[in-house]
Description:
- By secondary structure, the chain is an alpha/beta fold.
- The protein is 33% helix and 12% strand.
- It has helices at 21-24, 32-44, 105-121, 138-148, 162-168, 184-189, 197-208; strands at residues 2-3, 5-6, 17-18, 125-128, 153-157, 174-178, 192-196.
- Strand 5 (153-157), helix 5 and strand 6 form a beta-alpha-beta unit.
- It is elongated.
- The two termini are 20 Å apart.
Amino acid sequence: MAVPTYTKAGAKASAAAKLDKKVFNVDVKSHDLLKQAYITYMNNGRTNNARTLKRGEVRGGGRKPWRQKGTGRARFGSIRVPIWRGGGITFGPTGEENYSKRLSTKMKRTALRQALSLKAKDDQVVVIDSFEVKSGKTADAAKLMKKMDLRKSVIVVDQVSDETKRAVNNLPDITVVDVRYVNVFDVLNASQLVCTKKALELIERVVIC
């Protein structure tokens, strides 16, 4: 399977890059594992900030709202009971919930191969010799993206320099990812997947194992 190749200056090279069929040409019969890996990534990045107050934590309600008998109304001992507006919350989040999920290494690698294969079959994989913005300027990174006609792309590199990270941070649809942290979420959300040659070698070596 051959894909377009670009030089580090953004010019299209004459020779196409070949992708390993074991990584980029996997038959995806079901998307269940992809969905599981996608949800796992989202859950593991979830912050647990939601917390509600129980009946005993809400201010007020120390006085009985009305006498027990003789009013014709239902008996209540506090205005902070859960069935009253402004009262405590029953079974609400406590801030101690654990939403994290785990996948085995084999499942992660299989899901990543499936995601990469879907991108390759849709002609959304591009290879570049190397990607580095030494000036650290966003304008230079934007010019390079425009030259390669890349939109909403994930660029996988073998090592992210501080200058490159600074140059790309202000580009809303471009994400630079270290090859060690490439994941199903980033791959599936990208319109185009751009890999440097070194990063591609590392992906094919690790994901096949």
